[in-house]
Amino acid sequence: MTNGDIRTTLRYRWYIFWCLAVGYILVFFHRLCPAVVATDMMTDLHASGALIGFLSSAYFYPYALMQLPTGLLSDTWGPRRTITLFLCAACAGSLLLGLTPSPSGAVIGRLLVGLGVSTLFVCTLKILAEWFSIREFASMTGILMAMGGVGSLSAATPLAVVSGRIGWRMSFVLVGVLTAVLAALVWKIVRDRPADLGWPTPAEHAVSDAPPISLPDGIKEVIFQPAFWPLAVWFFFKYGIFTSFAGLWGGPYLMQVYGLSKGTAGALLSLVAVGMIIGSPLLGFVSNRVLKGRKPTLILASLAMVTLTALLSFATDTLSLPLIGALCFGFGVFASAIAVIGFTCGRELFPSRIAGTCLGFLNLFPFAGGALLQPLLGYILERHGKIGTAFTVEGYRRAFLVLFLSALAALTASLFVKETLARSDGRSGKNPHGNGAKAAESIRAE
Predict the structure, then answer these.
(1) CA dist., res. 40 & res. 37, Å (int)
(2) Would you say 365 and 218 are in contact if contact means Cβ atoms under 8 Å apart?
(3) Does residue 208 lie within any of the structural domains?
(4) How many domains is the chain partitioned into structurally?
(5) Which of 25, 38, 61, 233 is the most buried (most CB within 10 A)?
């Protein structure tokens, strides 16, 4: 094994990473785009707030349900095949969403989109575990989440501008075409592990010839780990808050309560994406170097979200625009970017042989939260009536109270999360598994 072989591996893994990172931009675009075009969709499809809430949350049902099968597919069938196949479904869903004349067709399209992008995150983490060392994993996950911020940004002001020119329907058709191109690139460039190309691995776990663990055995190992459940509950409430505000009701709230234009509301919501882009790598640094722990970082973020949702709940119609901008930025950092630390903590709880299964099972909970809270807020808004076509301030106040209570639940769960950083340092510091990882580390140090 030569230094040239290692350098080739270290260089090629970045091609793989950026290909998958572009896919993650697409994941976040679809996740948050209804916030900007929700009012257009309600008008065009003649849909109520509750129905639009269900349409938006339809993305999350297949996404959440697919996390366990995704873990199994990534551990057995392979991430590359899984991502490519499911991106084709996302392409079909986006095209249907843009072309259908009925709410039922839009719901089916949204379901297909959620199904299609549901495998990308867990499969990408599985690939990162094979192409990067344990010490690099949190940083790479942070960069990946920052790219999700780019996707959030594209779902705000850019989507508002594009949909204003070609309509929301043709915007989704265009995204469907781009999705097909991405599927082809993933199949051409991505490989599951360096060994698929005959190269040494920079990862620090031993390459095993043992058969993959079965899904039932993997799930059993995960669910009987007590430290898993506080993290799962934290994810459920934390991400339910994020997707409910930034992914759907934030846009109508800003337009209907504060009378902002779609462009201005999109510009404010784009600060969510800025928070994600800045916060994702920053929180990894804070966890590793400043607080030197996963748990205190999660607690700090949870406290911040209690404050932000309290502002929405108790000062619903009296916030200044600069404060709303700061609130949106805070949502990006403390409700979305913080997932970097949550997933790193989950990754460190379990061995690499069940990395896909444990991350897939964990990833079920944030999207279950989104699937529950988005339509629940829509129902509450409908219950409190409308003034013309706009929901009332009292409706938004009561809906955001649900987010405040969810933030309190997330804070409580964070207090019971197990610290994993010391275990990670201990394992990675010894670097016991082979010369490939040692050689890779020596080259990174040069």
Answers:
(1) 5
(2) no
(3) no
(4) 1
(5) 38
CA dist 287 and 284 (Å) reads: 5
Q: How many helices (H) and strands (E) does the chain have?
A: 21, 2
Rounded to 5°, the CA angle 255-256-260 comes to 30
Residue 200 in 3-state DSSP?
Answer: coil
CA distances from 217 to 72, 213, 214, 226, 230 (A): 11, 7, 5, 16, 21
Closest to 87 in 3D by CA, of 37, 24, 38: 24
For 431, counting Cβ atoms within 10 Å of its Cβ (0-12 exposed, 13-18 middle, 19+ buried), the class is middle
Let me know if residue 164 belongs to a domain: yes
- Measure Cα distances from 46 to 40, 201, 426, 431 in Å: 10, 54, 58, 60
Residue 1 lies in a domain: no
Q: Which residues pair with 391 in a beta bridge?
A: 386
Q: Supply the range of the domain harboring residue 146.
A: 9-194+214-430
> Can you tell me the distance from the alpha carbon of 14 to that of 389, in angstroms, rounded to the nearest whole number?
49
Classify residue 209 by burial, with Cβ atoms within 10 Å: 0-12, 13-18, 19+: exposed
Q: pTM surpassing 0.90?
A: no
Query: Where residue 118 sits, what CATH number does that domain have?
Result: 1.20.1250.20
The string of pLDDT tens digits covering residues 26-78 is 888 887 787 778 778 877 887 776 677 777 778 878 887 887 788 778 877 88
